[in-house]
Specification:
The protein is an alpha/beta fold. It is built from eleven helices and seven strands. The strands form two sheets. It has a five-stranded parallel sheet with strand order 5-4-1-6-7, with helices on both faces. It has a two-stranded antiparallel ribbon with strand order 2-3. Strand 4, helix 7 and strand 5 form a beta-alpha-beta unit. It is globular and about 55 Å long. The protein starts with a strand and ends with a helix.
Length: about 200
Amino acid sequence: MKKKNIIFDFGTVIIDWNPHYLYDEWFGDKEKAEWFLNNICTLEWNFEIDGGKPFRQACEELKAIYPEWAEEIDLYDKGWWRMLSRVDDKMAAFIRHLKDEGYSLYGLSNWSREKWEIVYPVSKVFHYLDGIVVSGLEKERKPFPPLYNILLNRYNLDPKDCIFIDDRQENIDTAIALGIDGILYESFEGVIEELAKRGIE
């Protein structure tokens, strides 16, 4: 049976977000930026913000540990917009196409509450979605099942009727464990190919 509900992650899948866009320019050296993001403003630290910790609190706590990096840590908050490149035009057009074809579309994303409240009003593509669950608002995060269950329960979705598209394998693994079909995003073309195999074009 063809799936009728398609669930999208946001970062990488719909909108191009990468801290290197900010810090490569700041440091003028990709290797220095890589070291900073692997050792100071790490993905694990950002994960706490995605889970609902306020940006300012997270930055102040980190500066107390690494005062010598205070300016760069503050930049993660103040320069956050420069981590965004653009919405993927091809994916945005495909989402509009799916909407026109009658599919129900949803969003399930790890995202800071503060930044989401800024991004959502100005990014039209998200307004094509029938429902959205964002980690920072719910204080739950992928890949943990409670965030997925919030989406399923809030919008009365049957897992077997859903496909989830995400760029991280651990997030896909949780979806599959909950009975949701999963597609690992590696490229837009790859997603289109995988959806076509499922009869969705």
